[in-house]
Amino acid sequence: MKLLSKITPAETVLIQLGSNAELKTLIKYTFLDLLLKKVIKVVEIGKKTHPMDDIRMYTYIELGKNFEKYTPKNHEAIFLNPFREDTSIQVLFNHFVKIIYDASGGKKSYRESVRSNKQMKSYFNQSFFVHLFRLTRLTDKGKKVKEEITTYLQEANNKINDLLHNDKEKALELLLNIGGNIFLLQNLDFELLKKIDEELLNQKRSLISDSYASGDDWYFYLDFFEDGTLFDFDFEEGDSFDSHFDSTMDSFDTEFDASSCSSWDSGCSGCGGCD
């Protein structure tokens, strides 16, 4: 389904769930998608808070190699704003998530940002009263697309791991067709992505280069398949990158109030702040 290669997972979730799309979900998938496209990246740095202490690992966010050539959509811009004045800074992971959460403007505001992108406008009702009450209502075209997306993702979810085992070429084609929406495939085993052959990736890159502009998102996603270590971070035993993001957002009421972390450029005593 070619549409899924052009819309982000946050946009897909908004089409599927409408007013039931939670802010945390939309922000998380946008963050993961930007990581996948290497617009931003995660780094781990060892630091000592005191010369006598053991080295402690801190997780930071910094700009990725594709930042300069990537044009962010409206709902992605807040993820890059902290780096506009200084592209070399590193922001502590928990602090970065807090920045984005604050900059989102809340659930309704962020939904409006997601559906305001050019690709999305025909799928959502744009009437005066819908805007006035900040509602999320699909047009007839949007309802049709919702059905098509749901069916396609269900089918992809059912067959993706079998393809990764038995037909990696078809698996790669499927994954590139859905772009960052791979996060919506509950059955996808990310470990299997590391086994996609480099020669196959090079062949696919050549074919895509002949058909698409180098700035197309398909092109960015190929970078991930060449480096499957993107989400190999051991926050805690049994704690995945996905669940760590969720727990970070859930901790705002206690952790950030207690530490008084409120602005990205000031840093926080004891937690690493920004470099």
Class from helix and strand fractions: mainly alpha
Low-confidence stretches: 234-238, 253-273
Mean pLDDT: 79
Shape: globular
Could you give the order of strands across the largest sheet? Answer: 1-2-3
Count of DSSP E strands?
3
In short:
The protein has 13 helices and 3 strands, in the order ααββαβαααααααααα. The chain has helices at residues 9-17, 23-36, 77-80, 93-103, 107-115, 128-132, 140-166, 168-178, 190-193, 198-211, 217-226, 241-250, 252-259, and strands spanning 40-47, 56-63, 91-92.
Outline the structure in words.
The chain has 275 residues and is mostly helical. It has one domain. The chain has 13 helices and three strands, in the order ααββαβαααααααααα. A three-stranded antiparallel beta sheet has the order 1-2-3. A hairpin with an 8-residue loop joins strand 1 (40-47) and strand 2. The longest helix is centred in the middle third of the chain and has 27 residues, at 140-166. It is globular and about 65 Å long. The relative contact order is 0.16.
